[in-house]
Design brief:
Length: 317
């Protein structure tokens, strides 16, 4: 029996709490005796979430059970942390077998000194602050979740569900995690090193119409000739001018943008279709399965076939 102890405080983000709790509770329903979920506040009193919901905890700090997994959600309440909460985390964090933060909950762990020397992520909106205020913490703003030993941090909101599913898979196996995911109508889980944003959301939208049209063309035609020369011709600019203007206006080189679009398209085809790897590599502009394999290993740390095995939902019978 693993006790999952969820810390609550005023202005906590309700989905940061309920998302992971639903995952662990679903795993407990499928495999009784696996998880015991408890919530805790400083004084045992109820708290109000940032969306106005009222949550009633099971425990106060004084009578909280020992945690196997100590989970710290995010929300507006993390931006002005309560010193008593930070002190309690500083004391209890090292005692937990697994320390987890969702969204800006990483700010509370950092204030407690529990992230020093560790690689972490958080919601994109607080990563700069986390890095600035805590220079001893290695902040990676891109992934949806990061594992570093017994520490696990996530980007927040729905990525807390992805991280919780990964932890369930680690604890009791892929079949249970898949059953929970299917019940929640989500993929088994997105890989932790998947970017928080798609290429289209990461890159800025170009100001000039020809460049915006090129961005859209790339998204709709990942298998086309997307060389700088070809894209520059479509924008009616010289290759040199196009490359410079594209990076200035989008914050990303044309090659980097193309790489991300192709990878995202290949991932979707692997997840959503039964097409073969060779067919997908051609459709996404890689040309050969080996070129696509290199792109997957470089960015996601896994080959396309393994990615499909792990992340494509099984058919419902």
């Amino acid at each position: 029996m693993r006790t999952v102890l969820v810390v609550l405080f005023d202005d906590v983000q309700s989905l940061d709490v309920s998302g992971p709790v639903e995952v662990f509770n679903g795993a407990e329903r499928h495999c009784p005796g696996t998880y015991r979920i408890r919530t805790v506040t400083a004084d045992g009193g109820q708290v109000r979430t940032s969306s106005g919901l009222t949550l009633v905890p099971d425990h106060s700090f004084a009578d909280a059970p020992a945690a196997h997994t100590l989970l710290v959600p995010g929300g507006e309440g993390t931006r002005r942390p309560d010193p008593g909460l930070v002190d309690w985390l500083r004391e209890q964090g090292p005692r937990a077998e697994r320390l987890v933060s969702v969204c800006s909950g990483a700010l509370l762990l950092a204030e407690a000194g529990l992230l020093d020397g560790r690689r972490v992520t958080s919601h994109w909106s607080v990563c700069a602050r986390l890095a600035r205020d805590h220079p001893c913490v290695e902040v990676d703003p891109d992934p949806i979740f990061v594992r570093d030993g017994k520490l696990a941090t996530s980007a927040g909101v729905t990525s807390g569900i992805d991280l919780a599913l990964a932890l369930v898979e680690e604890d009791i196996g892929r079949d249970i995690a898949l059953s929970v995911a299917r019940h929640l109508v989500v993929f088994l889980r997105r890989p932790g090193n998947q970017a928080q944003f798609s290429a289209q959301l990461t890159a800025q939208t170009a100001r000039r119409e020809p460049l915006r049209e090129v961005q859209q063309w790339i998204t709709e035609h990942p298998g086309a000739d997307l060389s700088v020369d070809a894209l520059a011709a479509r924008a009616r600019l010289s290759p040199r001018h196009f490359a410079r203007a594209f990076q200035t206006e989008t914050g990303m080189t044309p090659g980097r943008y193309v790489d991300r679009v192709r990878l995202e398209h290949a991932r979707r085809l692997l997840e959503d279709t039964a097409d073969g790897v060779e067919e997908i590599s051609r459709a996404c502009g890689y040309g050969t399965p080996e070129a696509m394999r290199r792109a997957f290993v470089r960015t996601l740390g896994t080959a396309p076939a393994e990615y499909r095995r792990r992340f494509r939902p099984a058919p419902v019978h």
